[in-house]
Amino acid sequence: MKKIISAKQAAGLIKSNSTVMIGGFLSCGAPDKIIDELVKENINNLTMICNDTSFENVDKGLMIKHGLVKKVITTHIGTNPVTLEKMHAGEVKVEFYPMGTLVEKIHAKGSGLGGVLTPTGIGTILEEGKNIVEIKGKKYIFEEPLGADFAIIYGTKVDRYGNVKFEGTTRNFNTSMATAADVVIVQADEIVDCINPDEVVIPGIFIDYIVDGGIK
pTM for the full model? Predict the structure, then answer.
């Protein structure tokens, strides 16, 4: 069985200067309870890998607002004006990728691949400084795998063995990030004894710690 810890204990595992993947599409499927504790504990100087920086006053947006993040690797920041302000002020470095490219870089790390080839971005600034591979007359950008020290993800239901079930679109980036970090912490809306194997989306082998999100 996996170790069940509090959100505060989860935040205590994460050290300043770490690289952290955080699940969620905006606030959908975001591990907000753990993020709140990161803010309280002022775990800072982080590199955050995420689909977006959410909104100013919730989950990932709070990490930006409170100065915990030095660099963001993401697909867009348009819903959070604070991220934009900090980027222009030089307080936060932002590295952009198309959404499909970002998730495939994470998949590559989780699958043990040496990288991925994508035509997305050819002929744009996205190819600057990248290795370009030509196959059968078509050009591709070579993208390296992307991993992290920690992944903080969400699950609708998680059993005591770490198996994770999702409702609706909450799975988003959570499923990929669970495979690509050294330590994976899942915040569960509900912890149950056992999930039907047919409903398992993330197998428990990928999960290190479970946090009770307290939603019943």
Answer: 0.95
